[in-house]
Amino acid sequence: MVEVTAKYFAAFRERAGRGSESVATNAATTGDLFAELARRHGFADPQMRCKVAVNDELVEWTTRLENGDVVLFFPPVAGG
Amino acid sequence: VAREPFRITRTPIDPEAQKQTLIADSAGAFVGFEGWVRDHNDGGAVNALEYEVHELIAQNEGEAILAAARERFAVLEVACEHRVGKLEIGECAVWVGVSAAHRGAAFDACRYIIDEIKRRLPIWKKEHYVSGESGWVNCADPTLGAMSSRDRSS
Fold it and tell me: Which of A60, A68, B48, B99 is most buried, judging by how many CB atoms fall within 10 Å of its CB?
């Protein structure tokens, strides 16, 4: 069990109704946590189209979570 | 590592001023790209756009893209500016400029940079429609079941 802060952006923030929350989870990786939170908040975008960052650095969906991590969930990007 | 001339801005982009920064005596070619806010997307009439950004990661990714372009193509100077916040129809949302000795590398590098910018930067675009509704471009709308009609790269 780890305790992390999840932060949501753009469509995810609106869908979740909040910009961030504390999460106590058994998820081992960023991908596992995304699946858990997507179920909780009804995020519909497939993981492969989204991005994740830990402590302000982009990481993989296989990155392991550590206590105190700040995990940023990015919905599909649309710059330009 | 030298900082690359990539910038996120909340004020209007001035393409002509940007271009001046790329001038070099050995340059035989300049290619510029401007992304503008258009009045429609996927059949919907658009009033305005709102760009959201994660500024630190966007800055790091933007600089990495420009550095990669310098390595991959025979260019002299590269630069890019992306605007965020609320934009009106016709405004410039993104500018890319490349100078090179020859046109081939300038075209190729410019195309590479804008494609990578759209693919990698944590920037999101919310469209405000004439109908009063709004929607995030490229994102699935769970209320519509599957993917929304806007779930497409622009």
Answer: B99
